[in-house]
Write a structure and sequence with these properties.
This protein is mainly β and 327 residues long. The protein has one helix at residues 6-12; strands at residues 22-27, 34-39, 48-55, 58-65, 77-81, 84-88, 92-96, 114-124, 131-137, 159-160, 172-182, 191-192, 201-202, 212-213, 218-221, 229-240, 243-253, 261-265, 275-277, 279-282, 290-298, 304-309, 316-325. The protein has two domains: 46-206, no CATH class; 218-325, Adenovirus Type 5 Fiber Protein (Receptor Binding Domain). The protein is elongated, with a radius of gyration of 26 Å.
Length: 327
Amino acid sequence: MADSNLPDLYTANPVSIDPGDISYVVENTGATPAHGAFKLSQLMSNRYKISVTVAANDLVVALKHEDGTDPSADRPLYFKIGDSLRACTAALSKTLADGTNWFNSGSTTLGTKEVDYFIYAIWNTTPATDIVDLGFARVPYFSVYSEASATTTNEKYLAYANASAPTATDDMVNIGRFAATLSLTGTGHLWTVPTYTSANLIQRPIFETRQLQFAPTIAYTGGTTDPTSNVLNVNFYQFSAKLLTMVIQSTLTIGTGNRTITTYTMPWNTFNQTLMGGTGVDNITASGTKNAVASYQFTTGGETKFYLHETMAATGVIYISLVSPVT
């Protein structure tokens, strides 16, 4: 064809590019440039997506290209992990079978409730050849594997795709978030997932959850008689990096109740303090609305409870809020 410049060529013959298309390149290596070719997929390798599905009640999480294909040596995905750019050159997926209280997400407090999980790209140096690995956990702040737990039922557990666990100092980076639900112990800890939207499946780094529901167990100490009822009206929590916010509002019907302490189980148990104050306001006293002594405490039973120190004297509403750092 006759000589032409690029704008004229585009006008005469515009084409739609495909990741498999090959383009010419001159690599500047100094005095002697090298000539070669490359696939356009090499310029399109950082657009990833998270695939989350359920098969036979098992949770399946996979890392894909944006078009749904797996990463490969010819078409890798790149992630900045720690101080280095790492290439994911093979398919990555992790399956969590039903029947286990993974992440403590099937507990009485969290089971049947949607939980947000954060996706990580991990530079796993345990295999014979260092690889990019896939992981996910309930918290958004992990930067090295030693911050996570290897116990499957621990709230700080990190699920990873490779057969070999990362080493303690292996770097990881947050790359997204998804929602899933694990049923209670009595129903077999079965996985389900919602219909995904831009709110509950995030394809980018994100460091906070949505406002998530939980089901606190309410109990009483002191005095002799429980109230007639204590109905939850508001009960949510939210992670923002290493801060946990929790809000509870419940309506107490006193009946003949005279308990002096009301406790609520919490959606998270591991804090950097074993005892810390919160905010409690109520109008269940004879004198009307007042501030109450409120705190959370890690108990010998392995869970953290929020304590409202208030002697019941009237039917009314209890308000609780807490913002606390976690570990």
